[in-house]
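It is worth pausing here to work through a concrete case rather than discussing structure prediction in the abstract. The textbook approach is simple: state the sequence, then state the predicted structure, then interpret. We follow exactly that order.
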Amino acid sequence: MAFSAIATSLTRFSSLRNSHLNFKGIARVVSNSKSITNNPSPSWKRRCIRMASTASAEHKLTAPFGSWNSPITADLVSGAEKRLGGTAVDAHGRLILLESRPADSGRSVLVKESGKAGEELIDITPKEFSVRTVAQEYGGGAFQISGDTVIFSNYKDQRLYKQSISSDSSPLPITPDYGAPAVCYADGVFDSRFNRFITVREDRRDSSLNPITTIVAIDLRDNSIQEPKVLVSVNDFYAFPRLDPKGERLAWIEWSHPNMPWDETELWVGYISENGDICKRTCVAGCDPNLLESPTEPKWSSEGELFFVTDRKSGFWNIHTWIESSNDVVAVYSLDAEFARPLWIFGMNSYEFLQSHGEKELIACSYRQKGRSYIGILDNVQSSLSLFDTPFTDITNITSGTGFFYVEGASAVHPLSVAKVTLDDHKSKVVDFKIIWSSSPDSLEYKSYFSLPELIEFPTEVPGQNAYAYFYPPSNPNYQASQEERPPLLLKSHGGPTSETRGILNLSIQYWTSRGWAFVDVNYGGSTGYGREYRERLLGSWGIVDVNDCCSCARFLVESGKVDGDRLCITGGSAGGYTTLAALAFRETFKAGASLYGVADLSLLRAETHKFESHYIDNLVGGESDYFERSPINFVDKFSCPIILFQGLEDKVVPPVQSRKIYQALKEKGLPVALVEYEGEQHGFRKAENIKFTLEQQMLFFARLVGHFKVADEITPIKIDNFD
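Step two, the predicted structure:
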């Protein structure tokens, strides 16, 4: 554990390999420098919850917003919420899922159902492995199941390994050792016809900034390790290689610079020869220059029909099917809603075929419309959609089993979970809905403290044009503020920026609201979930539309009497960090901000970022003058309020030099500023101790410089330049 520069506002963390020692090491070293004190005891937490159950019968304590006691601690937030990296079903119909554990330094582990009711999930992945790919930096699609065999990407060396999940055998590598983790794999499928594994490969041996992406085949016939065979190449990017049931046709998605996969992509089908090569190919969608579309998620039915999602004509991602004989594309069901998500990660699964009888092809699918997810069964023959009522209001992936399917979802009171959904014989209604896995199984213990999101629609600076956000008012059963006081507001700008925030249970939000803060999560123009037209509001206008919408949202809440206009704060990570810095540099709406691995210099980002996003901002920004005019680092003189910055030192998406440049410039200008750097962290923080420290220091920073109240938690702040 290294912790340097304690006396200044530049704070750096490193981590030991053992996660238990990790936490103690940080607590000990930081405690010696008077940075963090001990955490509230479990008995205190239980006492808070008991108080909550009786508060309605007693008078609430009156205390300033932001100063309230809450059992939703930073320890709870950082250690409780596991991440989900995908689901599958093995040969016995058991659920297999990939979970990332913050308390274990972010290690990702495959687990399976035990097969016995009431028993906990069983780890599959040995302790010396972590299942994660860094393909395109954001990863996804790190494992694939066939029968009792799993093939997975190991984080440390990025090689693929094969493992039996029905025995205690050790994983065996199936790809070459290149001496360094320079070759990554993702989004693979088993090919039973040739006994091989087909997958996307990203080869960084010649260039880490411009790796070569291909679709390759890996021989599984014996234990010898051979160089993968290239099946599809030449284009910049590939995703979703998918085989038909007979192994005779391979579908895939490809795209080229400067497009991102939600701008323009192409769907191809290749015909496989007797020796396993692609002998000819046909473009199914995306090749017509007169038709703008971004096809995604191709999938073959049991009858060999190709389905996929595209946004042609309507601007909304809807499910379509390919008529091979005429090379036509037909919409299965048309709706102004999104049946897919932007391809930031590999391995997404927004719809799934169900076993059916007769000629019907039934598809379990979900879609997003006006800030909410819906799930149902799509009848391909009748082109009808029957919706189900479930506890989830947000749904991501679907995995099919025998007589049931699994859903990854959440709601305002349910954290990210996996539920087993059983239908009746007619596949017309849900007869059983059971949560099998939860990212935070103890969260319902704090339900009385939860602030429920309100979807708000607010006017933007463009007349007649609105944007959306989720507003969370302060909520604590034991406290109230005086009638004259309005709460401070923390506005969050999501990352991406081509992404979407969702109104689901997020304990990090509840951390703020249960202490008396109002919180708003903004889906500014350019966000997904509202169709192509809304998504393209940001083209050529990044740093303008997003900033304006965030400021408009804050003003809307002030004018509505919901928040205090003198205590407006803003936070965001990655692209959201850029929006945060731009809002603080070019507007005067907010009084303080926190940037997590945010962009300060757009030109530097373009020069140093990874291949996947290397041309992304060309579409978002525009010409060279725009790069200069919209980079906060070039206008330090316009900053006028305090900022705290958090940065991972292994970040290849937004390199550490970005945070260091803005920190040094603001320090020299004389503004209150602090920078915290984490060794061993990349783009986004995975280790519990770092998640905790970031959350607590943001809270304390805002309280000291803007809130003008004392926080209830015992947290000693890091030193702030030009303030302490």
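Step three, interpretation. The first strand starts at residue 3 and ends at 4. The two ends are 26 Å apart (CA to CA).
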